[in-house]
Amino acid sequence: MNKSTKEVDGLDMPRSKADDAEVQQSHVFGDRTDDGPDYRNVGWLGTVALMMKTQIGLGILTIPASFHALGLIPGIILLCFIAVLTGWASHVIGTFKHRHFETYGIDDAARLLFGRAGFEVFGFIFVIYWIFIAGSAMLGISIGLNAVSAHGACTAVFVAVAAAASFGLGSIRTLGRISWLAWIGLASILTAVFTVTIAVGVQDKPTDAPDDQPWKSDFQLFGSPRFVDAATALSGFVFAYAGVPAYFSLFAEMRDPRHYTRSVITSQCAITGTYIVVGTVVYYFCGSYVATPALGSAGGLLKKVSYGLALPGLLVSATLFVHIPAKYLLVRVLRDSKHLTANTMTHWLCWMGCTLGITIVAYIVASAIPIFGSLTSLIGSLFGCLMSFMFMGFMWFYDHWSVGKAQPTKKWRLRAFWAAAVILMGAFLMVGGTYGSIVSIMDSYSASGGASAWSCADNSNSS
Fold first, then answer.
1. CA–CA gap between residue 403 and residue 419 (Å, rounded)
2. What gap in Å lies between CA 322 and CA 163, rounded to an integer?
């Protein structure tokens, strides 16, 4: 492979891969045809919307509670640190994809790094990862429906409704057609969280605060959490950036992948700024009475209003989280076949089977682990560390180790040290966070006697 490079949109990418002809020719989907969907029609702004929507949605709803566990200052520092890790990992995805255009998903990258075993293992993890996230999105929708309707139906029914809606919208075949939904969903969730942010700032006290004494926020600049609580909170931050593995798919469907970096920078800055503002204000004014999800922090009426505003955004999140693993399975099954990009019966049966299968398993996850904060922390720790930044450290070494080792420079040594540190930090967070999340789930099940799975109880009053 030609290793000569040039700077394009901030990336070192091979000349042979950066040419316009290469950009217009997909190594995954083949040539564009009139008889089938156009999988490469997402502009850079549409990519920004999709990136932000894969991130902002569920994760932002746990950030104020994580600040409560850690303290405001450590919380902000650690959130920014996770933002740096995932931002670097997102950049590595772009450089790796530009060097290896034939890779579609993280499993293709794992095949290059670890052979067939890596391909199979990471393909399986990728699907399970997004199924768990889709399940958390369905759970979030059920919480919103409970809040808006004042628990108008059994929660298990609301989860089923969320699953059905996610299947319908997730079956839209291209990200180009979903990108306009992403803008709507992004506006919806941001309007909801900023409504709550403003509300907690102007109200006299949180609704759940005691009435028999004057209210003064008990927020803490520095917390003293148990290891389990700190690990769970940090895993919540990882979950807030858990959409990074989707960037493989977003890159593949960009109209001009050379604009990938500007999309990453724009979205990462906007995401992190939003997280800090919302998390800080909500925690500052609510203190220990902050709710999880955070939309319940402003009390009864505002909870209904905020969830009503947020429901479209939560639904778009679920749509993406069903679509992404289903698209992976479709490409995996039909790659190098005419059925991948043609409107044939085989194409439709395979596509609908993929979206339905993902939806059913995600519904089971949402019903079996219906504790929102614990589920999101479990996803962030068990899968998020590996998939959102740890694996990208190995990707960097694959592309840079042999050349840099032959002629090591100070810059190369620093970059290699950073990549190795990312891998080690990811391993530590994965083990510690998973332990903390499992303990939290076990505590919740002990408190409920195991009755929370497939429960009809109102899940919008958790805190």
1. 15
2. 9
Asked if residue 213 is part of any domain, the answer here is: no
Contact 211, 56 (CB under 8 A): no
3-state secondary structure at position 26? strand
What residue type is 381 in one-letter code?
S
Tell me the residue range of the domain where 288 lies. Answer: 38-208+218-448
Mean pLDDT of the chain: 83
For residue 215, with 0-12 CB atoms within 10 Å meaning exposed, 13-18 middle and 19 or more buried, which class applies?
middle
Q: What is the DSSP string of 186-254?
A: HHHHHHHHHHHHHHHHHSSS-TTS-SSS-------SS----HHHHHHHHHHHHHHTTTGGGHHHHHHTB
Peptide bond connecting 257 to the previous residue in cis, omega within 30 degrees of 0: no
Question: Is 457 a member of any domain?
Answer: no
CATH code of the domain containing 378: 1.20.1740.10
C-alpha dist (Å) from residue 377 to 30, 71, 82, 373: 38, 18, 14, 6
Give the residue among 387, 291, 297, 359 at the shortest CA–CA distance from 138.
Answer: 359
pLDDT tens column, 60-78: 878 888 999 999 999 999 9
Residues in the chain: 463
Residue 102: which region, alpha, beta or left (left: phi > 0; alpha: psi -120 to 50)?
alpha
- pLDDT at position 197 over 80: yes
Give this prediction's pTM: 0.84
Q: Which residue has the tokens 């609510």?
A: 286
Q: Which two tokens stand for residue 252?
A: 């593949």
* Distance of alpha carbon 462 from the chain centroid: 22
CA distance 328 to 111: 15
DSSP 31: S
Which residue in 270, 269, 272, 317 sits closest to 293, CA to CA?
Answer: 317
Distance, CA of 107 to CA of 118 (rounded, Å): 7
Residue 17 lies in a domain: no
The greatest distance separating any two alpha carbons of the chain, rounded to the nearest whole angstrom, comes to 73
In a domain, 6, yes or no: no
Give tens-digit pLDDT for 380-414.
778 888 999 999 999 999 999 887 777 888 999 99
Q: What angle do CA 96, 55, 356 make, to 5 degrees?
A: 90
Number of domains the chain contains: 1
Rounded distance between C-alpha atoms, residue 386 and residue 436, angstroms = 17
